[in-house]
Batch of 2 targets.
Target 1
Amino acid sequence: MSGISDTERMITLKTVEGTLFDVKSSIAKDLKTVQAFIDDSDDDVTSPIPLPNVFTRELSRILDYLNNHHRFRSGIEKADEEMARYDAEFAKSMSHEELKALILAANYLNVKDLLEFLNQTVADVIQNKSVEFVRNFFGIENDYTPEEEEKLRNENEWAFNGVEQD
Amino acid sequence: MGNTASTAAAAVASRRESAAVQGNRSGISSKSRSVSSSVSPMISSTVNSVDDDGGSRRDFVEPDYISDLPDECLASVFQSLSSADRNRCSLVCRRWLQIEGQSRHRVSLNAQSELLPAIPSLFSRFDSVTKLALKCDRRSASIGDDALVLISRRCPNLTRLKLRACRELTDAGMEAFAKNCKGLKKLSCGSCMFGSRAMNAVLENCGSLEELSVKRLRGITDAAAAEPIGPGTAAQSLRTICLKELYNGQCFSSLILGAKNLRTLKLFRCSGDWDKLFQLISERSLGGSGAPSIVEIHLERLQISDVGLQAISNCSNLEILHLVKTPECTDVGLIAISERCKLLRKLHIDGWKANRIGDEGLIGVAKGCPNLQELVLIGVNPTKLSLEMLASNCLNLERLALCGSDTVGDPEISCIAAKCVALKKLCIKGCPVSDHGMEALASGCPNLVKVKVKKCKGVTSEGGDWLRQIRVSLAVNLDTGDTDHQDASASDGGAQDNGLEFPPMAAHNAGGAGGGASAGVASSSTGRSTSFKSRLGLLSGRSLVACTLRKWTGGNTSARHG
């Protein structure tokens, strides 16, 4: 369906808790999972699209991020700095739990740029940290036996730890 | 070092049945499916992991209990991590071991002989390696052919291989490797013992090879036994050839000649007379096959003379030329190149203070190469005559470095300031420039962004500060070149073993004011040459330089100070 510009069309999304979000279709395009659903539907999607895996808190953040990035990109030149500042604040504003939850939501909704950014943020958190720290951060239990772990550590010794240059 | 297959490896081997792997035992299943973007939002997060009771379970994943990330997210996280961090991640749990291993494409291994037993486990774990480095140290026995062949069978999709000091590898091993890894694009080997048969095997089997870099290949020292290294099936694909410290580099001649699409050729310290090769290259082009495709040539410490340069001048596509410590190359050769290589945009010359190249040659460059963007002169003594012409004719000259020139003083800097309108970056090292010269920069070179001054005794920190104040947008990087610092430094403005790399501003890290004692020290200098250089730094007497040059070039040249 064309004619009227897409940016005027609104899509409604419904979170787990039942909260409704009205989203411009230009923004909805970045939620690839949603977009695929829309594309697959023969008729116009008028009723709210339910997102059974996505919670209000996460969707709200995702839309916030996308709205801001759209704004930065369509604005004047200085946007790069502003965008970097926004991104830094955005990352800082979340606890580790919230960060992980957001990654799951962004992954489910397939929001590519945000996902890359969030994965990088996690990488920044865990780099140079101990194995224990990483386990705690993710709430993962060690499922190696002490012998296995020891053998794996030995095996790792074979791989150089330096920066690999070409 | 582990020398038996670990049980972690057994876990890895069974990873294909993902149902058997549990990410964690805290009671919440983690997603192990890969995301599909066409999933309708109507589908809830069904997790098909099999837990201890053997049944599959559907769990509603709530934010508070989320503990782990989907595979693809983890892989993306790992991508930004160093090898050390990735190793730590592999220790977190078995699932992470699996994901980390599968997503590691670049691996660098300690190639000692004891690596062999660990290979099956390592390469079950790292099953997507495309770039591999095998490095041994000089004191240890390296892996042998059997290890290399084993690895090659497990990495059939290898695109890059780097070998260092794997002295136990033979021609046979390399041949077997090449047959298994036919998609190889880049091979770099240093301090290995195999010979031309190995090289030919790679060139025959790896028809997509783009880059070949060979340093100190011991197996070709015997000129009689070495068979010529021919282009093989890689003739069309080879783009870059780099040869360093070879006793018999000539046996690569047929390769160089046969690589029809060769763009970059680098020859460092390879013995023999190289004039002939370039003559052959140019004869081929004159014979009607069109100008050679070569765009970049680096020649360092080679036996090459004006005859060779004249031949190189037939490479009309040449854009980048480095002539480092080639005292048989004189103004005559440089003029020949500048007359025919109109596309030249980057020129580096280390004249080794032999004064074979000077104003005449540079004036030739000024006349013939209007596209010049970058000029680095080390141990060359240009005067205003040539600098003026370069400035006026080379209107695209953006980066200029002058190092160890006795003739570059304040008048020369003023001239550059007045005339080099396009200049963005300027580096001056070990030249008789003073604060007056810096003053000239205050009002000249309108596009100047960075200026770096090192080891110029006449330039003080006050001079630098003054310049910074006048031109606020200019980055001024000084070491003040005070005598105290110079004594401590092992490097000087004269004959240096470190080639100056552009951009010099970025490469040197200790150039800050007052801290320049170790700036720019040659990383490859030996103890002996260090003392030579420090003497050179303090005394620039002819006899000392002359005697040093004779020593280094085996008596072929006598230094002249013009």
Note: Chain B has a mean pLDDT of 79.
Target 2
Amino acid sequence: MNENLFASFIAPTILGLPAAVLIILFPPLLIPTSKYLINNRLTTTQQWLIKLTSKQMMTMHNTKGRTWSLMLVSLIIFIATTNLLGLLPHSFTPTTQLSMNLAMAIPLWAGTVIMGFRSKIKNALAHFLPQGTPTPLIPMLVIIETISLLIQPMALAVRLTANITAGHLLMHLIGSATLAMSTINLPSTLIIFTILILLTILEIAVALIQAYVFTLLVSLYLHDNT
Amino acid sequence: MLSRVVLSAAATAAPSLKNAAFLGPGVLQATRTFHTGQPHLVPVPPLPEYGGKVRYGLIPEEFFQFLYPKTGPYVLGTGLILYALSKEIYVISAETFTALSVLGVMVYGIKKYGPFVADFADKLNEQKLAQLEEAKQASIQHIQNAIDTEKSQQALVQKRHYLFDVQRNNIAMALEVTYRERLYRVYKEVKNRLDYHISVQNMMRRKEQEHMINWVEKHVVQSISTQQEKETIAKCIADLKLLAKKAQAQPVM
């Protein structure tokens, strides 16, 4: 049972070759591009959604920050689609792998920090000390702020991994609970099945929210550093 | 790209060819032929307006039509599912219930909000088309207005002679008025002069009359002797006394 529980998180291989690459490359197939003004409904709704999110996200940046808009919009679309696709049965979610999330978080965060240090070094260093701290606390606070800065990419990656993995695990566990109870006591099965449905709705929300949170935080770090 | 590599390799091998290597890519592009075949997809064929029909959102209608002569598709589907379940090709596991709940939520969402999203997408497209249509209509309207203005201007040009007639009449009237004014002034001046002469004549006559009267009076007064004067005055006094008595008698009554 333990082996089965985490079986869905093993990176899938086909005859020893990683299929995870194919799985990561699959979501863009669901987002059609079109060179026409009037498209089918799918393309129209997707274009409208992307326009909405990009406008919402990029209004708070200045011109230099808006050069990141392609990166951030593609980030949120990628994380949202992979999370949502992972809810389908017997599917693999790449964002459950810490390796992938670290690979996403560390370069983006490092990019913002390096950009900040290159352009406005005084502003970037000023982030290490909040305003209005009493003088004796300054050395300790600088150390704490440095640690909190260095922990940002770890937090980004681990937050996404933990949320999605925990959601999948919960769904699996409650599913197996319904399976077990279905032979023992049918009404409680129905109750547990209701819980499962509610959890599914939660998972859909979590999938979208996590994407949003990831991208929002990266954009926040960007805003600090431009 | 490989040809460029070949060219650069040739340049390093034979240094005398190095100058020729600059011409290499240009020569290559000149020798490559473009637009030789028949132009296909001209004009670009239009996209179909609606997608193919599907049943249950997954299985295209053609599949059902293909199977109908041979076997019932629903029977085939049920048979396959039961076969997979009974032979444990598909194992009912925890994943099954997860799948059921996920698919159930998805189907519920699509059934409930599907038409809404479809209408929304249609509305977005219609808005785009309406914008373009409005631009086209505005342009047509603008040009129509210009045409109408031009036509009315042309019509006005036909009626220009009224304006000229009116102006001509005005000028004629003004000339007439000026003429009459001057005529009147002339009349007044002439009358003035004639009145002057008349008054001069009248004055002369009056003066002559007065002079004559004075001369006559003077001579008459001179001709009255003193004896006659005294007699006349005494008679006048007697007459006056008589009259006075008569007058006094009247009011007492």
Note: The beta strands of chain A are 13-14, 17-18.
